Amino acid sequence: MTSPSSPPEAGAPSPATAVLLPALPSASRLTVPAILASAGEDAVTRFVEYFAAQIRNPHTRRAYLRNAMQFLAWCEGRGIHALKDIRPVTVAAYIEQLVKSHSKPTVKQHLATIRMLFDWLVTGQVVPVNPAHAVRGPKHVVTKGKTPVLSPEETRTLFESIAPVTVVDKRDRAVIAAMFFTFARVGAVVTMAVEDYCPQGKRMWLRLQEKGGKQHEMPAHHKLEEFLDAYVEAAGIGGDRRGPLFRTATRRGDGLTASPMSTADVWRMIRRRAEKAGIRTPIGCHSFRATGITNYLEHDGTLEKAQQMAAHASPRTTKLYDRTNDQVTLDEIERIKY
């Protein structure tokens, strides 16, 4: 491994030999670090193909691309200017540094990024071996999720605080209800079209495009059906079958546009509604997935059915959302007399 007489500081920008990549799905243009550009056109092409073709989820792609660029910049900052000079000890040193400033799940994601990227480069014959294979990440065992969950009283308070006066009020109530009653991720809810809320037999159903490309269908709870029907009627979008179901509000906030809500739009709406309802729990979009699952299990629902309803591949994942034991812990704590 070679080192220049005066190596740049960690995180220093790539030298002028960097090139501009064609558009990636997650970035219009991207400056490639010199360490990658110096490996040749095949290496650059292979790098682009990994993010453009191998990773379909836009959020995962964005995170992994950021992690990869950060690692390569870190290597350059320590005088490493060729991919073949990246050794297991290099990756280990990087991971060791991240452990001091990042959470264990974040460190594990960085290591996974490096490992999977170099696997792709090895199969493309860009580098001979994967330097990350021998590196172990920090141990992190999760038995309970960290997503904030609302109590039944808080859930009821939130719904009752949204007076269905305007079409935006009815939209907000319907969005929250869709996540709570179907256990759906916010990404699946905001991508629904009007036609994805459809009749099957005597009931209305929701057709959701969940994580991993899974199409998941759920019958609408009678309350959700009530809220959705009121919203669709008020919005006047029943005939626009291919249009987005949940739409952004106009600048004045007195109507809706033809554009779909984004996950960020929903997050801001939830925080605004929670503050107005006087809810102190720092909830977000995912809170309603966890709240719905916990509520279902508290009322004698089964873990097996909760897994099916949440479209989880493993019951262990569903169990992370189960907070039914939290109340038992609080009850026991109150036995301590002061």
Automatic annotation (TrEMBL):
Pfam families linked to this entry: Phage_int_SAM_1 (PF02899), Phage_integrase (PF00589)
Family: Belongs to the 'phage' integrase family.
SUPFAM superfamilies (UniProt xref): DNA breaking-rejoining enzymes
Start and end residues of each Core-binding (CB) domain: 42-122
Keyword DNA-binding: yes
GO molecular function, one term: DNA binding
Residue ranges of every copy of the Tyr recombinase domain listed in the record: 145-335
InterPro entries, per database record: CB, DNA_brk_join_enz, Integrase-like_cat_sf, Integrase_catalytic, Integrase_recombinase_N, Integrase_SAM-like_N, Tyrosine_recombinase_XerCD
Source species of the chain: Tautonia sociabilis
PANTHER family assigned: INTEGRASE_RECOMBINASE PROTEIN MJ0367-RELATED, PHAGE INTEGRASE-RELATED
Entry keywords, A to Z: DNA integration, DNA recombination, DNA-binding
Protein name (database record): Integrase
GO biological process: DNA integration; DNA recombination
